[in-house]
User: Which sequence fits this backbone?
């Protein structure tokens, strides 16, 4: 047997191992494709994501295993390979870590697709934190395996963390601002928000910045720390839209004012698109320079802006018809000039 192995050249052996690895690669792909085909028939889609996640790392493990075996076979013929083995024998740990991280990403994609009650931004946040913790834990384990002192690393990390904290104060404040957004949820991706400095739709909540698309379709990138220092309004979470109008009639129509307001209030109470559980008021408010002003105050059931505009339009036209029906007129600025002969 040894004579046979000695007659085989290194290149022939490498070629044979390559054929074996390629065959194993195709076999594994066939097996997993069959499993994935069967999994797609089930109602639960989690297995689809997990199979898709672990297939590349498994293929990588096969190739690594065959490369590792081939190096072991030829260590006697190529002395430098003996030192190579000491550096690559921990590669499976990194490949397995890669597989675990991919599985976390698969679970994240499954939860987002399932549309559960948990906010998608929160799912992404916890997924990222889980990946970071896994990578840190594996890195510390590898460091200990290579002979480094974990306690020393942690001590250095504590001192280095203080130094980095002072050096990257703004970056850390933005990261913690992003965490507060995920925990308090003043807004989520897709919400319409506004403040004194910006207004638009939230497109992405990142670790450091949040991207907002303004109504002029321009992207605005806002550091997350800003949201902890300014008030934010989220109009997309409104329960109703408000109608608040001031309408004035002529002073000559003061006798018709009570009946006009009474009919307007009754019209609003009977209007199907007005939310009658909310405040509804029609009241005389002000003796203006050229008009008698009364307020109309109500809330619509819809929050859609287009529908709201149509409802408001119909209500204002109905108010105009009521005023006209009582021989009154909507006032406009006028002046009376007396000329003495």
Assistant:
């Amino acid at each position: 047997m040894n004579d046979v192995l000695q007659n085989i050249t290194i290149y022939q052996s490498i070629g044979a191992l390559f054929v074996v690895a390629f065959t194993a690669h195709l076999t594994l792909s066939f097996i997993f494709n069959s499993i994935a085909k069967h999994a797609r028939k089930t109602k639960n889609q989690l297995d689809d994501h997990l199979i898709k996640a672990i297939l590349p790392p498994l293929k990588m493990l096969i190739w690594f295993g065959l490369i590792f075996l081939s190096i072991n076979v030829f260590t006697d013929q190529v002395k430098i390979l003996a030192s190579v083995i000491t550096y690559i024998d921990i590669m499976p740990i990194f490949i397995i870590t890669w597989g675990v991280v991919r599985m976390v990403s698969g679970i994240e994609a499954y939860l987002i697709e399932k549309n559960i009650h948990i906010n998608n931004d929160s799912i992404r946040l916890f997924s990222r934190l889980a990946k970071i913790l896994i990578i840190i834990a594996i890195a510390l384990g590898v460091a200990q395996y290579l002979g480094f002192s974990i306690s020393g690393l942690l001590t250095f990390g504590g001192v280095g963390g203080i130094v980095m904290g002072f050096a990257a104060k703004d970056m850390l404040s933005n990261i913690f601002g992003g965490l507060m957004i995920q925990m308090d949820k003043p807004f989520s991706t897709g919400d319409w928000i506004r403040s004194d400095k910006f207004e638009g739709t939230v497109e992405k909540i990142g670790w450091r910045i949040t991207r907002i698309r303004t109504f002029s379709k321009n992207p605005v990138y806002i550091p997350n720390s800003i949201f902890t220092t300014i008030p934010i309004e989220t109009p997309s979470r409104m329960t109703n839209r408000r109608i608040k109008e001031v309408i004035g009639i002529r002073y000559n129509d003061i006798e018709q004012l009570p009946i006009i307001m009474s009919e307007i209030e009754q019209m609003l109470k009977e209007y199907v698109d007005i939310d009658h559980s909310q405040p509804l008021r029609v009241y005389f408010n002000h003796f203006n320079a050229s008009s008698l002003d009364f307020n109309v105050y109500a809330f619509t059931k819809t929050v859609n802006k287009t529908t709201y505009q149509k409802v408001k339009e119909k209500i204002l036209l109905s108010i105009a018809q009521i005023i006209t029906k009582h021989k009154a007129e909507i006032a406009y600025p006028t002046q009376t000039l007396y000329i003495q002969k």
